[in-house]
TrEMBL record:
Gene3D superfamilies: 2.40.30.170, 2.40.50.100, Helix hairpin bin. This is HlyD family efflux transporter periplasmic adaptor subunit. PANTHER family: HLYD FAMILY OF SECRETION PROTEINS, MULTIDRUG RESISTANCE PROTEIN MDTA.
Amino acid sequence: MRKIILSILGVLFIIGAFIIAKNLIDNKNKPRPVAAKVIKTVFTDTVKNTTIPIVIPANGNLTAKQRVEIYSEVQGVFRNGSYLFKPGQTYRKGQTLIRVDASEYYASVQSSKSGLYNSIAAIMPDLRLDFPDIFSKWQSYLNSFDLNKTTPKLPEMSSDKENYFITGRGIITSYYNVKNLEQRLSKYTISAPFNGILTEALATEGSLIRSGQKLGEFINPSVYEMEVSISKTFANILKVGESVALTNLDKTESYTGKVSRVNGSIDATTQTITAFIEVTDDNLKEGMYLEANLNAKSIDNAIEINRNLLTDNQEIFVIKDSILDVIPAKPVHFSDTKVVLQDVPNGTVILKRQVPGAYSGMIVKPFVETKDN
């Protein structure tokens, strides 16, 4: 009986193993579900070759085109003037910026002028006797001589005898000594060379000024220049007089300048050339930082696209029958974000935006913009 039970259990175990094995085999051969193919939607653009202007970005700080560093050539005490010598003070052309006490030096100048006058007066009797034809000329000179005014120019010599006579009396030497002293006396007063504003003051009223001491800086706030450095590639293209668009850092204000000068040499270290942009505006201040866009040249039969659309192999993606393909392109100019290309046929459909993982042969769906009725 026991053997019969064991035999039955063995048969059942074999049948169960067979059924389990059959189920495993059936499940293994069951076809897997096919994943749905995803077609990416892309933004496209149609090529239309035009003339592309090449714009060179540059930046720099504004400096006054007319700037004067004020130095003293004489020594003395700084005397008060009509206006305080302080930064921000405006002056008109000819107004006194600085007046140095010249009372002592003025007395020596007056003494020399008096000596010249006496020397000429001493020869007048001899001129009346020996040179009666020129006596009236020198008499008129003496009559116009004023110690409180600038020494007038000596009369013109009409003959060699007159020249020898006047020179032999030391009058010519005395005259030029006086003119030299008067010239130095004028340095005790520094006047504004143009309408402008004082931007730096290094001396105060009542202080002792020494010869060679820097006293301040004076600028014309109506015209400014900005120095920019550009690639040597554009050395023969950039022209004086070209209009330049300028903006501030916040892009809130725009100005228009022009190229006033272009340096004739290239910096050997940076291989750049320096250009100067002149700009005029009441809202500008010295030291302001501006960005400039210089129009260098124009390229015919070209297009401009984003730099990330150009592959490392100098190719761009095109769309033919909803399939991506690549064609060679000829880049002629790179900017920070754009590239200018030539030799791309008109009517070619290209990508407008970069597609992650794009490859030649990839099936895509061009994006079609729908218009609301």
